[in-house]
Amino acid sequence: MAAKMELAPLRPWGDFFPGADRFSKPEFGDLTKWNDRMISNLMYYQTNYFIVVLIVFLFVGFLNPFGMFLGGTVVSLVFAGSVWAGENKAIIKNFKRKNPTLFVIGVMATSYFLLSLCGGVMVFIFGITFPLLLILIHASLRLRNIKNRLENKIEGVGLKKTPMGMLMDLLDQQEDKINKIQDFFESKVKE
C-alpha cells in the first residue's frame, strides 16, 4: 500500500519542550529501548526539529554563506553516496543494517574530513553538527506520550509517510519498528 508524502504537524511548544517532568535520562544499559525512544521522538517532533535546524542553518549561513553552502553540499553528497553504496553493495548494506549509528558517524566523519581539506570545519561543527546534536539530545531525553506512540504506529505500518520516515527508511531503522508492531498485533490476537 503506497502512501503519499505528508508533512507532520508542528507540535506546540508546550508539548515539544514541557517541564522537567517529561524529560528523563535514557536507559544506557538498554540500547534497544533508548533507540526506540529516539526514533519515536524523531518521527513525532520532526517538523519542530526541521525548524530548529533551519534556524541554525540560517544563522550560520548568514555569518558564512559560502562555507554553509559548501558544508551542506559536501554532507549531502557524502550521505547520498553512502546511501547508494548501502543499497548496492552487500557488505555496506549489512553494516548499515547492523550498525546504523556507526553508519551515520562514518558519514559525518567522512564529511568532516572532506571539509577539513577545504577549510570549512567551523561551519561543519556549528552549522551541521550542532543542530544534529541538539536534536539527538532532545530525542534521547524527551519521554514519549500516547499521541507520540500512536502516530509512530500509524507511520510504521505504512498508513502515512513523512520526510523523517523516509530518512529512517534510508538508514534501515523502520524495519525493526514494523516487525515490533506486527509482533505486538500478533500477540494481541493470540490473547
Automatic annotation (TrEMBL):
Main location: membrane
Chain ranges passing through the membrane: 42-60, 66-86, 98-115, 121-141
Keywords: Acetylation, Cell membrane, Cytoplasm, Cytoskeleton, Endoplasmic reticulum, Membrane, Transmembrane, Transmembrane helix
GO cellular component: cytoskeleton; endoplasmic reticulum membrane; plasma membrane
Domain of life: Eukaryota
Pfam family of the protein (one): PRA1
PANTHER family named in the record: PRA1 FAMILY PROTEIN 3 (PTHR12859:SF2), PRA1 PROTEIN (PTHR12859)
Protein name as catalogued: PRA1 family protein
Organism listed in the record: Cyprinodon variegatus (Sheepshead minnow)
